Amino acid sequence: MGGRMNRTTFRLAILAGLVFLCSLFAIGAQWAPFSHAAHPVAFAGMRGVPGAALFNGMVFVLPGLLLVLGGGRLRAALPVQTRWQPRIGATLLMLSAMAFAAQGLLPLDPEDIDAGTSSLHATAWTVWWIAFATGAVLYARASLVEHLVAVGAVLLVLLITLFGREWMPAGIAQRVAFSVWFGWFVYAAWCERR
After folding, report:
1. Under a CB-based contact definition with an 8 Å cutoff, are residues 169 and 104 in contact?
2. Would you write out the chain's pLDDT as a tens digit for each of its 194 residues?
3. How much is the pTM?
């Protein structure tokens, strides 16, 4: 069963990333003012934007839920004698995926960008990267390479999320951070698959 579970986890991670990327570009292209370089991902899912519910569902909610399932499978695949750190790490990775999905359920409100669902969206975004930063490092357990990949992914997400706007357009920075997050999940699932 372990091999089948690990293959399924790997497929869930790949599927989540593909759904995110394809939906981001295909559905995002339906709204002309949407710029991948200038706008955050959630811009095309703001209240009042045509197709916002579909965009939020396909870009945030579905990929997030797929990774919640994947994170649960990563946790379930841990051997019984595993230390507490990877177990808590896997739980935090699931929280990160839930927070990613929540961004689609709490769309930005262009009429009230600093309060209401906009502030809840920002909170979900913050929980997304904090839970990932902690969870990935705690989860990596098998080898020095896995630890280095986890630390590298976390540092990259943190640097781009917090300071990326200094080096690149804000929209590009956010997309790179999300892509690194998806990529780390794929890598973690691949490591479990072996």
Report:
1. no
2. 344 456 888 899 999 999 999 999 888 778 778 788 888 888 888 888 888 999 999 999 999 999 999 999 989 888 888 888 889 999 999 999 999 999 999 998 877 767 677 889 999 999 999 999 999 889 886 667 777 888 888 888 888 888 877 888 888 888 989 999 999 999 888 887 55
3. 0.90
Domain residue spans in the chain?
2-193
- Hey, what amino acid is at 142? A
Interacting residues of 159 by C-beta distance below 8 A, sequence separation 6+: none
CA–CA dist 71, 76 (Å, integer): 9
Q: Which of 101, 84, 185 is nearest to 136 (CA)?
A: 185
Chain mean position to CA 159 = 16
Contact 154, 132 (CB under 8 A): yes
Token pair for 109:
């409100």
The one-letter amino acid code at 185 reads F
Contacts 24+ apart (CB under 8 A), 65-68: 65/97, 65/101, 66/12, 66/13, 66/15, 66/16, 66/19, 67/12, 67/13, 67/16, 67/93, 67/94, 67/96, 67/97, 67/100, 67/182, 67/185, 68/94, 68/97, 68/98, 68/101
